[in-house]
Amino acid sequence: MTECEPTSRPVLLFCLLALGYAVYLALGAAVFSALELPYEALLRQELRAIKLRFLRDNDCVADDRLDALLSKVMEAGNYGVSALKNASAGWNWDVASALFFASTVLSTTGYGHTVPLSDGGKAFCILYSVIGIPFTLLFLTAVVQRIMVFTTRRPVEYAQQHWALTHSRVASAHAVALAVLSLTLFFIAPAIIFSVLEEEWNFLESFYFCFISLSTIGLGDYVPGEGHNQRYRQLYKVAITVYLLLGLIAMLVVLETFCELQQLKQLRRLFYLRKEKLEEQLAILDQDQLSICSGSDHAASFRQGRAESFADTTSPVGEQPLTP
Question: pTM (2 decimals)?
Answer without folding.
Answer: 0.73
